[in-house]
Structures are given as structure tokens and as C-alpha cells.
Design goal:
With 297 residues, this protein is an alpha+beta fold. The protein has seven helices and nine strands; from the N terminus they run ααβαββαβββαβααββ. It has one domain: Translation Initiation Factor IF3.
Length: 297
């Protein structure tokens, strides 16, 4: 290895500053430096949550093939309009909120986020940028793994942080635009809502499609029970995220919907909503034009 005196000035300065790790892309890393954010280290948080529900009527009802709504959540009954047909005819249906699923997800995400923030706090970081979150179910184990990671950063020239570092899913130009607009990131927020559809006869026949028992005839109609489940799931997710904002704004919101089929006409609608809690702290202030860091000639 060449002696320090033989190294270029920039290389010697980097070695003197110590090593660091980052989960940022090259453009996002450069944007952080231009904003006065010094990357410190890749920080992570992990949690594994058991996904089932024990006791009461939940597990027992599921094993018997019966709907098992939890108390205190959304619950709506759909009666059959035909009256008694046969013993196998679905004389009623039900939509209900799976509160135990929502609780397990919220605990898993929150614990993983807390552990990531603890790592950043130990580094003396002011914030964590470019947060990525993944949720991985373990097949046949009834367990979901939550993994959050991001890049801890320090604001150059700022005093040591007094509280927990802020977190944000944003990085690079998207984060720069938030600062430019006069907003400061406060935290990454996320929630899940889960609504189970236990179909009545009308919903079951409608979801059979063109090959169903009562298909054909050219009729067009909404599948009301399913539409209602999707609407309620979205409303629940929006309400919970709004509660996490405490009056601040939500920026960069992402909403994803997964519908899982559990049987003939039986579905689970799960909505994931996440975004960035931001607060206005200054008027709009354009950032300076970027300058070249490497000369091309």
C-alpha cells in the first residue's frame, strides 16, 4: 500500500474520515451530499410475527369452515334473497374485519422500525433516508418476517440530535424537493387493513363468472359484497394513517391492494398504505443548481 503522502488529496481525506456503508444508489448518495446530509451507515430492523389467532372462536371457527369475525371491528351481514333452497345453499354471507391480522402486522412493522431507529440513534444520526420495507411470509409456518433498512445520515454542521432520528422512505431528488418546498420529514408511516368476504349465494354465483349456475342472460351488475369490502378496507387504512400524522401532511403515499381467494366466493382484501409524514418548517426556497463533481475534460 502506498504511503499516505503518495495518495491524492481527495483519497487521503476520505481515508481519514473513516469508512461508512450505505443503501443508497449513486444518484441518491450524491443528492444527499448536496443537501448537507452525511451518510453514516446502513441501519436495519427485523421482527418475526406469528400470524394466526388462538382461542375464542377464531381458530375453532376457521377449522370448522365458519366465518369468525373479531369483536370491535367492521362487521356486515348479507342475507340471501331467495329463502330456503337446499341445505348447501348459502343463505347468508358476511364481511368482517380481521383485526388480529391488522394487529400482528402493526406490531411487526413497528418493532422492526424501532430497532432500525435504535441503530441510527447509536450512531448519532439525525435521520434515516431511503427506508425500504419488506414483508416475507414463511410458508406453512403462520409467521411473517418484517425487514426494514435505510441509510442513517447526519446533518452537516448541526448540533447533536436530542431525540430519535426522523425516518423517511424518500431519498435523492424526491427528498430534495421536499426540503425545497419548505417541508421537513418526520417519520415513515404505514398501516394494513384486512377485510374477509364470506360470500352469500348471490356473491358466490357472481364470482363464478360466465360459467356459473346463473350466468348468461346479458345482465350487468356490481358484486356489491366485494365492492363494499374493498371500499371499507381502503377507508380503514386511510383512517389509521391519518391518525399517525397528528395533523401533519402525508407525502408520497403508496396504496397497494391484494385480494386472496380462500374458496368459492370467499376472499380476503388486504390494503397496505404507506407514506411520509412531513411538516412545513420554512417557505419555498429553491435549492442551488448542482455542480459537476467530476470534470469531463
Amino acid at each position: 500500500m502506498a504511503p499516505a503522502s503518495d495518495l491524492p488529496e481527495a483519497a487521503g481525506r476520505r481515508l481519514a474520515e473513516g469508512s461508512f456503508s450505505s443503501g443508497l444508489s449513486v444518484p441518491d448518495f450524491a443528492a444527499c451530499l448536496s443537501m448537507g446530509l452525511e451518510p453514516l451507515r446502513l441501519v436495519q430492523g427485523f421482527c418475526a410475527m406469528q400470524w394466526g389467532a388462538y382461542g375464542g372462536g377464531i381458530l375453532g371457527g376457521a377449522m370448522m369452515g365458519q366465518p369468525t369475525p373479531a369483536s370491535g371491528g367492521y362487521n356486515e351481514v348479507y342475507q340471501c334473497p331467495h329463502g330456503f333452497v337446499t341445505g348447501e345453499h348459502r343463505a347468508w354471507g358476511q364481511n368482517y374485519e380481521q383485526t388480529w391480522v391488522e394487529s400482528a402486522w402493526a406490531t411487526g412493522f413497528s418493532n422492526a422500525l424501532t430497532r432500525m431507529v435504535e441503530e441510527a440513534t447509536a450512531l448519532g444520526a439525525h435521520g434515516v433516508v431511503g427506508v425500504l420495507d419488506t414483508e416475507t411470509p414463511l410458508a406453512e409456518a403462520g409467521v411473517a418476517e418484517f425487514h426494514l433498512r435505510g441509510t442513517a445520515v447526519r446533518v452537516e454542521g448541526a448540533p447533536a440530535p436530542k431525540g430519535d432520528p426522523w425516518t423517511t422512505f424518500l431519498a435523492g431528488q424526491r427528498l430534495a424537493k421536499v426540503f425545497e418546498a419548505g417541508y421537513a420529514p418526520l417519520g415513515a408511516v404505514a398501516t394494513v387493513s384486512s377485510v374477509r368476504v364470506w360470500a352469500n349465494c348471490v356473491t358466490e354465483y357472481a364470482l363464478e363468472g360466465t360459467g356459473g349456475l346463473f350466468a348468461g342472460g346479458g345482465s350487468v351488475a356490481e358484486v356489491d359484497q366485494v365492492v363494499r369490502a374493498h371500499g371499507v378496507a381502503r377507508d380503514l387504512a386511510r383512517t389509521r394513517v391519518r391518525a399517525q400524522l397528528h395533523g401533519d401532511a402525508l407525502h408520497g403515499a403508496e396504496l397497494s391492494v391484494v385480494a386472496r381467494e380462500h374458496g368459492s366466493g370467499d376472499l380476503e382484501v388486504q390494503v397496505l398504505l404507506k407514506g411520509n409524514r412531513v411538516r412545513r418548517v420554512a417557505p419555498f426556497s429553491p435549492l442551488p443548481a448542482p455542480t459537476l463533481t467530476v470534470a469531463l475534460s
